[in-house]
Amino acid sequence: MKTQNKELQKKYISFLKNIKNYSDHTCKAYKNDINQYFDYLNESANDLFENKEFVNYLFNNNLSKSTINRKLASINNFLEWASKLEENKGQTFIKSENLKTEKILPDILTSNYINTLINTLPTVTSKDIRNKAVIELLYSSGLRVSELVNLKINDINDNKSLRVLGKGRKQRILPMTDQAYNILSKWISDSRNEFLKNKNNQYVFLGVRGEKITDREIRRIVKSTTGTFPHNIRHTFATHILDGGADLRVVQELLGHTDPSTTQIYTHVSKKKLQEKYKRTHPRG
């Protein structure tokens, strides 16, 4: 049974990668979740589709509700796929329902704060210029970290736009602010060669060894520079665009969200911000 399950997992990951076009990062997350499900099956001596107690198993591992929900979604998708295979014809499974969780609104930086911060970032060294280009681009275009690190030179267009490969390998074209385009151009033309050791490396942002910069290094740069995380800058970008009058559909396109409900959280953020302003400014607030 263990060998059969592992072969099934291998086929499923191949399906995600080659048919669904999921990223390596997403495929790795699915693989880890399925491995944990197999651990549960081994401990409980259950068959593949006996998943009713899996949620309790996850609870016993002291995982948060949001993490449990993500893992349940992974296993639901896996079992649904497996149940449609010829060798499992007639097999059914009970879909695990998500746990109810409180919606946590993302932390948003004020426009004054992030503008002042970016304007005062140093540009003395090549590393300074790279780091400022990273921050400018994250705030200018609302990129995910994975999208930023995978940017290549030919993804940058002269019309101040960039081509991005998002989740599911879906491509979208994003605008850039003048400031982001200017510092990015300065990095590419004046400073990038100081990092470049492999002349064939076409990635925009490089680490000290001349290779593509890592996700971890981007997070370190953002944290040390802004005191927050890259995803909060993405949240900030979306909220500021929405506050400025952009339609929710436009924000959805810019962020690369497939599901409109994912973008909906930013309307809650804007309402919360409006309420806070009201309480601060109304004489009887």
How does this structure look, described?
This protein has 285 residues and is mostly helical. The protein folds into two domains: 2-88, DNA polymerase, domain 1; 111-280, Intergrase catalytic core (hpI Integrase, Chain A, Orthogonal Bundle). The chain is 59% helix and 4% strand. The protein is built from 13 helices and three strands, in the order αααααααβββαααααα. The chain has helices at 2-18, 24-44, 54-60, 65-83, 111-119, 126-141, 145-149, 178-195, 215-226, 230-243, 248-255, 260-263, 265-281; strands at residues 156-157, 161-165, 171-175. The chain has a three-stranded antiparallel beta sheet, with no helix packed on it. β1 and β2 (161-165) form a beta hairpin. α2 packs across α4 and α10 packs antiparallel against α11. The chain is elongated, with a radius of gyration of 22 Å. The N and C termini lie far apart (65 Å). The mean pLDDT is 85.
